[in-house]
Amino acid sequence: MHHERVAILDFGSQYTRLITRRLRDLGAFGLVYGPGATAQEIGGPDLKGVILSGGPNSVMEAGAPDLDPAILALGVPILGICYGQQLLARNLGGVIHRSSRREYGKAMIRIQDPESLLFRGLEDELQVWMSHGDHVEKAPAGFGITSHTRGVPVAAMEDRARRIYCIQFHPEVTHTQHGSKVLMNFLHVCGMKLDWNTGQFIEEKTRAIRRQVGEGRVVLGLSGGVDSSVAAVLLHKAIGKQLTCVFVDTGVMRKDEMTQVQEAFAPFDMTVKWVDARAAFLGALEGVSDPEQKRKIIGRTFIEVFDKEAGTVQADFLAQGTLYPDVIESSGVGGAVLVKSHHNVGGLPDVMKLKLVEPLRELFKDEVRRAGLALGLPEDMVWRHPFPGPGLAVRIPGCVTAERVAILQNADAIFIEELKASGWYRNTSQCFAVLLPVQTVGIMGDERTYENMCALRAVTSEDFMTADWARLPHDLLEKVAQRIVNEVKGINRVVFDITSKPPATIEYE
């Protein structure tokens, strides 16, 4: 695709991904590049602007990330944020004050230049989010100071002749008032068309897939998750019967998973090979309790099953549901290649010598969901919570058996059903039940029982790097617990996990 583009140089800020997201929300296509990216690497006729992110280093440190000076000669507007401002100021002859302590949190800036292009249309004072140690004490020649705070004499500066704009604060975080307006003003300076949207992405990506694949055949591992489902429908729109999907029932999936996916994809008339491999997976897992061994067995077995089925397709390409956050996390460089874990058939490209097709690699998760809805996938499929590649095997600590899987499937289905009925499913990021390797005494009717304990896990998260436990209503938890104990034979006690990540992980194994 050849969208007008803003290049974001990532100097290690925790907010770099947010910059990209805010630009996308405003209709601008942003791509992240590593801190060592050169003008040649990021340049091109589609480049309309460059943003230098914040970062944890001091520009005064030896070995701190630097900027290719040729980037300043690309002829496009440049926005330096926090570390980016300090880097530009240092390189262009300004004075940096090295602080012994960081300023972190909310601050008030005073806009002192009514002609500032970056602050056009904003009030004289703004609450912003600061996160820095050093600051610019004196602006370089050619720069006008456009805002300050009590402790920072140069909170923002501009060189309009060279179209270089610098700010000490973070406009991408929600704590900064009118931060999106500041970014929009920069995009106006860049002359962006602001044409990044779902409909245009689908049409452009459809054409790009056809160009890449030609007359070739594509195979895709369909898991029923959002990413692989949207990738499948988009590929089908582009190349029709040249795509073959392979759905492998591993025996450790959610209750009635294959049936639900079949129903969701029935209207699309897609070629899907439905493979019942439950016996193979459960047989390979028999007697294995070590979490890492379980993961390796499932990954290896999946590759063997998929390889066998995909081999009959005689495919030229392997499609994967890689998303843009995966690309960023892989190397921080736009255009990086990442082969995901066995959840998306990791390892197969080397084994099968197939070329990769990654139709969603430019998108964030919410953009994938919008694309899925626009392509006609049902809402239930589009809004599904993430599901681990090893499936319920990592939600059954200890040995995995068909009986224990069935118990957990039934408990998990009740939890999800009640979350959806109450409206809480869409307000959480991931929810599931866990079958603990603990048996407890209970009384059901007039009989004493000694059965399994079930834990409920519900979290909210922006990026799944951290997560907080969801504050579900007590009456909802009570209803779920009662239903599980009454309806699922083998469980007589339900607990709710209120541990955040960190220190805990989201999954149990």
Mean pLDDT score: 89
DSSP strand tally: 20
Tell me the Rg in angstroms.
Answer: 26 Å
Shape: globular
The largest β sheet comes out as: 9 strands, mixed
Portion in strands? 15-25%
Unreliable parts? 331-351
How would you write the strand order of the largest sheet?
A: 2-1-3-4-11-10-9-6-7
- Helix fraction? 25-40%
Give the distance, in angstroms, between the N- and C-terminal Cα atoms: 40 Å
What's the tally of helices?
15
Question: What this model shows, in words?
Answer:
With 509 residues, the protein is an alpha/beta fold. 32% of the residues lie in helices and 23% in strands. The protein has 15 helices and 20 strands. The protein has helices at residues 16-25, 39-42, 83-91, 179-190, 198-213, 226-239, 257-265, 278-285, 291-311, 324-331, 348-352, 365-374, 379-382, 402-422, 474-487; strands spanning 5-9, 29-33, 47-52, 78-81, 95-97, 103-111, 125-132, 135-138, 144-148, 156-159, 164-167, 218-221, 243-249, 271-276, 317-319, 355-357, 430-444, 447-460, 468-469, 491-496. The strands form 4 sheets. Strands 2-1-3-4-11-10-9-6-7 form a 9-stranded mixed sheet. A 5-stranded parallel sheet has the order 14-13-12-15-16, with helices on both faces. Strand 9 and strand 10 form a beta hairpin. The longest helix has 21 residues, at 291-311. Mean pLDDT is 89; it is low at 331-351.
